[in-house]
């Protein structure tokens, strides 16, 4: 069974020939205008639709996924899995709120707040404690991979003394920018049979760059939008990330086909169009750029 | 196709070297300002602006300058500006 119309249609879209003025139809200015309008539409839809604005603000990072991935890493080293602890999660949440409220990105606050202060305030009496931070990642997998690639964060994840773990993924405005913060707190509760007063505590923080950016907290009005575990959000960031990649790949294929067939029929130098090679170089850098942007920073 | 590419790169070596160097700077800057959304956007905007200017410059010296070509570079540049903006400022 043959579909000549379908075949012609695809030829018209991808292959340069007389009917499409020797340029793949998908690269014509009218089609480029459609892509531009689609991109503009998506941008405004994302900004103006309240549903997308609230839910889409967050990245595709979930506490469940972070918890699973962290324990998977521990299992690789035959370490016992960590138990999810609500108090540590509360401490992580309070730490994230504190960073937004006081506008800093560090293990220690501008007024000397320590990570273990939040742990103790949550009612968790610890013998060992540790903290990992991450900012502006799109995916849970990237967060855990970044931590595992950093010796100090990795040591925290693989520390055999820890028994409990808590997480918070909080969205807000930090230094005037929409930011997603991930706080991971580890702990081992004090053994109740041994009462030491004051308790001997050990707190470990993965502190590779203690570069707190402190601005006047009075000027900054923090806006906490959501606490991750309460959200049932569609994977909006994931959708746009994949949409971008699919679009770039489609455009790349079209440019290569157009380039190849135009060269074959000898019209490459006769057409009045942009340079496919330059567009391809640009697209390669855009792909690398998308991959870099999807990865945030850890502390 | 390979023959054409070789010829093109030999003929416009400086132009493509310039574009490639700008691309490398774009990647390095994005990596440097990773996590800083505003700066990431500035870096993206700078590279896209450079790409459009590069397109105009390249076709001007090539004697193949036409509004259609300028529009092609502007549209491709702006499509990616808007698409990546959604990822940078979700």
What does this structure look like?
The complex is a heterodimer of chains A (299) and B (90). Chain A is of the alpha/beta class. Chain A contains ten helices and seven strands. In chain A, strands 1, 2, 3, 4, 5, 6 and 7 form a seven-stranded mixed beta sheet that branches. In chain A, α2 packs across α3, α4 runs parallel beside α7 and α5 crosses α6. The longest helix of chain A has 29 residues. The termini of chain A are far apart. Chain B is an all-alpha fold and 90 residues long. Chain B contains four helices and no strands. In chain B, α2 packs antiparallel against α3. The model of chain B has no long low-confidence stretch (mean pLDDT 91). Classes of the chains: A alpha/beta (299), B mainly alpha (90). Chains A and B meet through α2, β4, α9 and α10 of A and α1, α2, α3 and α4 of B.
Stretches with pLDDT under 50, minimum 5 residues of chain A: 51-56, 193-203, 207-232
Overall average pLDDT of chain A:
80
| Helical coverage of chain A, percent range | 40-55%
The beta-strand count of chain B equals 0
State the secondary-structure class of chain A: alpha/beta
Please, what is the oligomeric state? heterodimer
Uncertain segments of chain B? none
Shape designation of chain A: elongated
Terminal-residue CA separation of chain B: 40 Å
Q: How many angstroms does the end-to-end distance of chain A come to? A: 60 Å
How many helices of chain A? The count is 10
Structural class of chain B: mainly alpha
Order of helices and strands of chain A: HHHHEHHEHHEEEEHHE
Portion in strands of chain A: 5-15%
Q: Please trace the helix and strand order of chain B, writing H or E for each element.
A: HHHH
Question: Shape of chain B, please?
Answer: globular
Work out the strand percent of chain B.
under 5%
